[in-house]
Amino acid sequence: MAARKVKLLGAWVSPFALRSRIALNLKSVEHEFLEENLGSKSDLLLKSNPVYKKVPVLLHGDRPVCESLIIVEYIDETWTSGPSILPSDPYDRATARFWAYYIDDKFCPSLVGISKAEGPEAKAEAIEQAKTGLELLEKAFKDCSKGGAFFNGDQIGYLDIAFGCCIGWIRATESMHEIKLFDEEKTPGLVGWIERFCAHKAVKDVMHETEKLIEFAKTLLSKPPPTH
Amino acid sequence: MAARKVKLLGAWVSPFALRSRIALNLKSVEHEFLEENLGSKSDLLLKSNPVYKKVPVLLHGDRPVCESLIIVEYIDETWTSGPSILPSDPYDRATARFWAYYIDDKFCPSLVGISKAEGPEAKAEAIEQAKTGLELLEKAFKDCSKGGAFFNGDQIGYLDIAFGCCIGWIRATESMHEIKLFDEEKTPGLVGWIERFCAHKAVKDVMHETEKLIEFAKTLLSKPPPTH
């Protein structure tokens, strides 16, 4: 039986689509990336993700998989010959899943909140929230990496992918608002991790370029980056 | 080495804590259920889940696992000798995870929205949203069960647990607002599934009694049921 073709419906600006791309790269899965126009979504996207109508959608043959973290787990469980994405120990898996959930549930909204904030007070509060989130993630890095280079230890894994895909938008937010979120003093582990993550062979060719994200954000005027 | 003790920090009213209890029952894991006073949370809860400060928390020895769906996966991966909770096929797993995500992301908030709605128009809209959610879940039941008695086929699994724990609050909401959400015509699959799920040996002794939930909700006056 011929291998089923793999297509990814995504958008280059989306950190969530980027997760799927990196997971596919990590597993050396040949795939086609289909850039969606988020202002006028394709029939294929609407048909493949009728509930949320959002990117990313992974099409494995004609079967769609939706939601970025679910896609990453699907890729890990389907292409088992590549390096493992989830940790092998159940407790480490639960911990990685918890922080990935936190990133989507709290950290990303706090980052978007900086751009959406109305007035200096609301903005200062949003910045504080994002910084608190990064400090929590710094602690998570220490706990999860166990002295290794990545959240997943010696090689990148689930939580690296979940968080790493936000790096571009964090940097763009720093630049656009002239603030510093990553901090040599408060988040030294993350500062080093960013360099290693962005230089990884599964990441470097697809990682967001900050300048392009800023340009994109400017064309949308004051609109925030996409939340999914 | 002695087996590590298992404790569950929960609250009887919480559908999310109920997920963990059913998963532990399904795997025949001996455990102690510690009822939290949600108005005055214990130091153990605050220490075990410092990020969200919420139930449920599973304590396996001294290691905490937080977030109900993550706990269910942890239980499945840790006590592997019991029946599998997640489907074995990666695509079926992704589908179950997607609908569980949908339940937490959309369906539960729509249910809470019925009680929180201010004015008849907002209430009608919230009811419509919840009904739409149930119709989507009816379709998911047909797709996932593949003709079996449960979402997971012939035995209860991840999505049964994720959704089944909402049954009590759905019924309580129906009763308190004198509405009908489950429907013999529009959700016939779910109507039959509810009976089978609630009668399951891992479920029947811990399932919410609708009357008790209603009584609890009344003591909170117009406050909505807990969202986690």
Question: Could you give the topology of this structure?
Answer:
The structure is a homodimer of 228-residue chains.
Chain A: E1 6-10, H1 15-26, E2 32-35, H2 43-48, E3 57-60, E4 63-66, H3 68-78, H4 90-116, H5 120-145, H6 158-164, H7 167-177, H8 188-199, H9 210-219
Parallel strand pairs in A: 1-2
Antiparallel strand pairs in A: 1-3, 3-4
Helix pairs in contact in A: 1-3, 1-6, 4-5, 4-6, 7-9
If you had to describe this structure to a student in words, what would you say it looks like?
The structure is a homodimer of 228-residue chains. In chain A, strand 3 and strand 4 form a beta hairpin. Chain A is globular, with a radius of gyration of 17 Å. The first copy, chain A, is built from 9 helices and 4 strands, in the order E-H-E-H-E-E-H-H-H-H-H-H-H. The longest helix of chain A has 27 residues, at 90-116. Chain A is of the alpha+beta class and 228 residues long. The mean pLDDT of chain A is 95. Chain A binds chain B through residues 51, 60, 63, 65-67, 70-71, 73-74, 77-78, 90-91, 93-94, 97-98, 101-102, 136, and chain B through 51, 60, 63, 65-67, 70-71, 73-74, 77-78, 90-91, 93-94, 97-98, 101-102, 136. Chains A, B: Keywords: Cytoplasm, Transferase. Chains A, B: This is Glutathione S-transferase. Chains A, B: It is an enzyme of class 2 (transferase).
